[in-house]
Amino acid sequence: MIEIRFHGRGGQGTVVASKILADTISKEGKYVQAYPEFGVERRGAPVFAFIRIDSKPIYDKSRIYNPDHVVVVDPTLIEAIDVTEGLKEGGYIIVNSEKKPEKLEFPDKFKVATINATEIAVKHKLGTLAAPIVNTAIVGAVVKILRLAKIESVLEAVREGVPIKPEDNAAAAKEAYEKS
Amino acid sequence: MKKVIMGNHALSYGAMLGRAQVISAYPITPQTQVVELLSEMCADKTLDAKFIKVESEHSAMAACIGASLAGARTFTATSSQGLTLMHELLHWASGGRLPVVMGNINRAMAPGWSIWSDQNDSLSQRDTGWIQFYCCSNQEVLDTVIQAFKVSEKLLIPSMVVLDAFSLSHTYEVVDVPEQEKVDEYLPPFKPKIKITPDEPHAFGGLTSPDHYFELRYKLQKEMEKAPALIEETGKEFEKMFGRYLGLVDEYCCDDADIILITSGTMGSTARVAAEQLRQEGIKAGNLRIKAFRPFPFETVRKIVKGAEKIAVVDRNISYGHHGMFYEEVKSALYGYNDSLPVFGFIAGLGGRDITPATFKEVTNLALKKKKPEEEIIWIGVKR
Known about the structure:
By secondary structure, chain A is of the alpha/beta class. Helix content of chain A is about 35%, strand content about 20%. Strand 2 (about 30-35) of chain A pairs antiparallel with strand 8 of chain B.
């Protein structure tokens, strides 16, 4: 079983990212469970989304406290909260950032990867310049870094799962996948 | 077709595949997506149903009652404060013998204001004459809505399909959405013998003298008594067509278990993980998840726990001044049959406090340490 926690801010599509990742995993015949933070979301406030992936049915319905990996959709959160809370040793911290992984300060027991999802989203005109929608690029990167699925499954899930601009979103996911 | 959907949408798909004809509902957190999707389905004709907008849950149930009386298959969904506002009309639906099917998202009752899960909302509707199913996965939610229409229409008793706030309502899981043609084969159209239409006027629910009222209640109970066998029969029929059995309970490793956890809802799924882990640690644990709370499957429970040395019932609810409501039923099931079997009653997870595999390990260890329970309620995880 793989457990992943997503950190984002309300309105950035973090929950949708976990849903598209769930769709991607499901397309490969695996079992998946994805859930948002249990509560009320506010635009701009820190939000969480969680996902469990397994080759067997998933019966555990409790919350995830010790994720194998974390994904940081909004890099400003690194200053605001401890994104590594409960993270297992050797787990990945995947950050949406223009910086190189070694420029981010995290304890050595974790692996760090970065993807400039904001730049990719802007390039493909997803969302606005002030508030780009980065979730499809994030999914592309996460799938590649954690070797969760084939790119074809990602593209299929993105095309089916986004409300608008399916081709632009698919292109963003593909670019992020290839750059990761 | 396999789809990744949230528990709330599993209810909507169940109502759609069940070809509900009239839907009346009022949105409330954490049920809102059930109604959103159904209203979209009605608007774009994916579902050929009349969606009646109302100003409260009381009116939603009233509209369902009227539509059901006119012979329509009706569906609604609510949660917590909404369900309890419906309370008066829940009696009207069952007393009127109207097979309304409703989804209820378990959410703790206010105050303190809460949007998180516990079972006190639906369990406090225990005596309204509704069948109650507690589900543990989105697949089970979807399948149970379809089965509930079948059971309800056969017995003319309404059904409630219950799921936990967030840990099911907002959780996405892979669900096998059955084909419409197959569901149509399983669930034929609702054709009540008696209905009220402008062409066939009847009075309904009028003044009933002591000469007749008693018999109406007797008949409701007699039909309710048929429900356990009918749930099993329709569950087997469902399994034949769709490959998934829908029973009164769901048991895991109870055959040779020394200690059996008795659970319900999503925590009943987590308990299975705990039982598996306990077995790896050398403790012979089993999990008996109760799905049908009304009618309560007394005989089934008696049969399954027969060989166990201890029972640990975990309740996500409380009857104030008494104890956990599943605990109460289990003790009542065993009374006169298996009086020497120690039954421990635990209360956990009120107001959405998480219930994890560790919770069940703690429960098991506590029960194994004592010969018999020293108190009616053992609180798990409460800050004192």
